[in-house]
Amino acid sequence: MQTLNTLLFDLDGTLLPMDNDHFTRGYFKKLVPHVAHLLPPETFLAQLMKSTEHMVRNNDPELTNEQAFKQHFVAAVGGLEEDFWPVVEDFYAGEFGELIELSQPNALAREICEAAVAKGYRVVLATNPLFPRAATEHRMRWANVQDIPFEFVTTYENSHFCKPNPNYYAEIVQKLGVSPENCMMIGNDAFEDLIAGTLGMQTYLVTDCLKEGEKQLPFTHKGTLADLLMFVRDELPHVKS
């Protein structure tokens, strides 16, 4: 039996408690006006959703999520103003940060990560890479885990797959040079996070913001963030160096 030495943490709904649907509506409401002078809001929003779905379904290892999204978006919309993407990037770097009001940060998140690191575990922020790095860094700050020594943080620039594609998890273990059996995926989505178990990872289903997902998959452990903290502190063994 291989030793557990790597913990993968989901962000939205796990380390950063939130109602994902409520957050998404607020995010769209704030983003759309920024590009209204370049694309009609209805056109932009409809294509944003279609191209995001295309990115999620993409299974081409030669394309990053960013490339898959942008290629699909541009092909559908046609000639974009050359300043379109800089406008979007400025939004993520700036006003996206105001969306903290749509989340419910919990101090337990940092305690859990610190406890894992103190025991010698390698930690990964395995957030669904639908967003650019700038938006992910905002959400890490909201959760107060921005300076946790994550070995890898998945974003749409550095990832080639999205949840629930098992290849998303396979890419992470390949980058870290570990096997799935060395890993535990910790998240609140009973489908997108627990599907990591099909590769051989252990899983921990966090129930504070439980998302049932498309179907319920088996899990190794289950509990609240408070339970997770006790689990990491009291039950997980120290990793032998």
UniProtKB/TrEMBL annotation:
The keyword Magnesium does not apply. It comes from the Bacteria. InterPro entries: HAD-like_sf (IPR036412), HAD-SF_hydro_IA (IPR006439), HAD_sf (IPR023214), S-2-haloacid_dehalogenase (IPR051540). Pfam families: Hydrolase. Keywords: Hydrolase. Signal peptide: none annotated. SUPFAM superfamilies: HAD-like. GO terms for molecular function: hydrolase activity. PANTHER family: HALOACID DEHALOGENASE, TYPE II (AFU_ORTHOLOGUE AFUA_2G07750)-RELATED (PTHR43316:SF3), HYDROLASE, HALOACID DELAHOGENASE-RELATED (PTHR43316). This is Hydrolase. It comes from Tumebacillus flagellatus.
